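Hi there,

I know you've been waiting on this one. I reran it after we fixed the sequence typo, so this is the corrected version. Both the input and the resulting structure follow.
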Amino acid sequence: MNIKLIAAIITISLALVFYTIGVFSERKAGSLRLKQILFFGMGLVFDTTGTTIMSSIASSSSAATPALHLVTGVAAIVLMAFHFLWAAYVLGVGSQKSKTNFHKFSLVVWMFWLISYVAGLVMGMTS
């Protein structure tokens, strides 16, 4: 297995771990806290890094990446970035109600991201 592929798999899997910890620790805590935002940020950084490595691999390969995976992957990163920035805003200037209800938005973003993650996993196993 190619070292770039191993690095991409590890970084994207770390993104899953960090983002999942952030989303579910926020749910468990009942309110948005700084540590969850840090986990969201680490998830975003690792996902962006892994996706960049995967894109590098794909551009040097003759195999075509399905358009649906490209779209969901880019949308997931954009959504994660928005989620991270919105979380920082809510924590900084949001009401207690918005901090308490933020987990609903987090769960939607996480589920969308998970669809892209699983799609990439399935594509990797079938190629």
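Quick highlight: The CA atoms of residues 111 and 126 lie 22 Å apart.

Best,
R. S.
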